[in-house]
Amino acid sequence: MFVRSTLFSRSDIWKIVSLSQILVEIAVITSTQAFAETDALPSWNDTATKKAIVEFVTRVSTEGGADFVPNADRTAAFDMDGTLTPEHPMPIALIPVLADIKLNVEKNPLLGAPPAVAALLKGDLKTVVAQGEDGQVDIIAAATDGKTTEEVAANVRPMLDKAISEKFVVPYTKTAYKPMRELIDLLEANGFTVYICSGSPILFTREISEEMFGIPPENVMGTWLETKLGERDGRTVLVYTGKIGHLNDKEGKPVTLNLAIGKRPVFVGGNEGGRGDIAMMRWSRDRDGPSFQILINHDDAEREFAYSESDSYSLDAARQFGFHVVSMKDDWREIIEK
After folding, report:
1. Number of folded domains that form the chain
2. Quick one: which of 87, 95, 178, 242 has the most CB atoms within 10 Å?
């Protein structure tokens, strides 16, 4: 005969469940207070944006909470140029590209003839952008011109080590945004795997990602350039064909993220200025479960640069989809570590 246990009544069970929920909420509050006391983001001003970031990271990493995300799914993805490091007066990846083009054009002047290449050599980035993807193909062709992957990679660091930022008077490899380095450290300390998903060529970004942002090369995604297997001096090599395999910008970024990690990132960071990150941010927002997106607004002409999109596309999207807009002027106490 079945005998119902009378150890706990239904009301007792509900009390236990309610108590468990209360304990989880207390744990979240306590963890958030601990973050505040230790100040994991010291280069951020004490604004609503900073508070929202800390509270979100606490919620998704507190086991038992309603918004808890398992470690395997706790991923973050950041654009690079304009999000982790300045993209003005030019994106950091263009520095070694430009150096390679200059050397190659000296040997073969015909490589400098396409409009985008000629404009880049003059420092006319507006004309470069206006040439679109065709212009980017011409630039890539001029920069790589039959070189192997090893030959191009070997030139990245020497060129960057020589290049000094006029704005910040430090080598370009030292221009990572200090608040974003702190944010990456905070996420990793709370079980996030952090990736870069950049429009810059992946080969260049991988060469600087670990030093500048603490992100290993295998966690870097970017525009990839076509290569083919060749042989030189009896040794197999990969040689660039001068074509773009995949342009990792706008709608191309979710495609790359899906191929690389197979899931929607929980935390995404992009920047206003080129419309390139909204698709990635929306893809994160539309995941099943909690998510967080930040859009860096370049509104500090004195300490960095002030620029915006003529149609306010990214800022309008932030308002529409609930992205958190980070004001460099108001939210960041420091920008570049001196």
Report:
1. 1
2. 87
pLDDT of residue 16: 45
Amino acid at 295: L
The 3-state DSSP class for residue 26 equals helix
Among left, alpha and beta (phi > 0; psi -120 to 50; other), residue 108 is beta
Number of H helices, E strands in the chain: 13, 7
pTM for this entry = 0.86
* CA pseudo-torsion sign 206, 210, 216, 222: negative
Q: For residue 259, what is the domain's CATH number?
A: 3.40.50.1000
Distance CA 338, CA 83 (A): 19
Question: Domain range spanning residue 197?
Answer: 71-89+169-331
Residue showing tokens 């390679």:
100
State the Cα torsion 307-309-310-315 to the nearest 10°.
-110
The reply to whether 183 falls in a domain is yes
Nearest by Cα to 138 from 110, 157, 159, 160: 110
Cα→Cα distances 163→36, 94, 167, 316, Å: 38, 11, 12, 36
pLDDT in tens, 229-278: 999 999 999 999 988 899 999 999 999 999 999 999 999 999 999 899 99
- Alpha carbon distances (Å) from 136 to 70, 144, 182, 290: 40, 12, 33, 37
The answer to whether position 317 is within a domain reads yes
The helix, strand and coil proportions of the chain, stated in percent and rounded to the nearest 5, come to 50, 20, 30
Of the candidates 265, 274, 272, the one whose C-alpha atom is nearest the C-alpha of residue 78 is 265
What b/e readout covers 215-230, taking b as 16+ CB neighbours within 10 angstroms?
Answer: beeebbbbbebbbeee
Does 285 fall in a domain?
yes
Nearest by Cα to 54 from 33, 78, 68, 75:
33
CA–CA distance, 324 with 48 (Å, rounded to integer) = 10
Q: Which of 103-107, 269-273, 285-289 has the lowest mean pLDDT?
A: 103-107
